Amino acid sequence: MKKTLVISLMSALVMGLLPLSGATGAPPGRVTLSSSTAPAMMPGQTGWMALTWLAGPDALTEFSVTVTAPAGYQVTYPEGRTDTSLWDNDSLAPNEMDYTAFKIAVPENAPTTPVALTATVSYSYQQNKNQVRVKDQIYSLSMPIVAPGATAFDQVTTSLGELPADARSWVEMSYRGNAPSYDFKMSAPTPGPATVAYPADGAYTMLFRDPVLDVGETDHVAFVVDTTGMAPGTYSLGTSVAHRVAMAPRTAAGTVTFDVAGTQTLLSAQRAVPGGRHKRTGSKGLARFSVLEAYRLCAFEDSSYSSLEQLVADQGERVAAAGRTMSAYNVWRAKLSKSPLRRQRVFQHYTAICG
Question: Rounded mean pLDDT of the chain?
Answer without folding.
Answer: 78
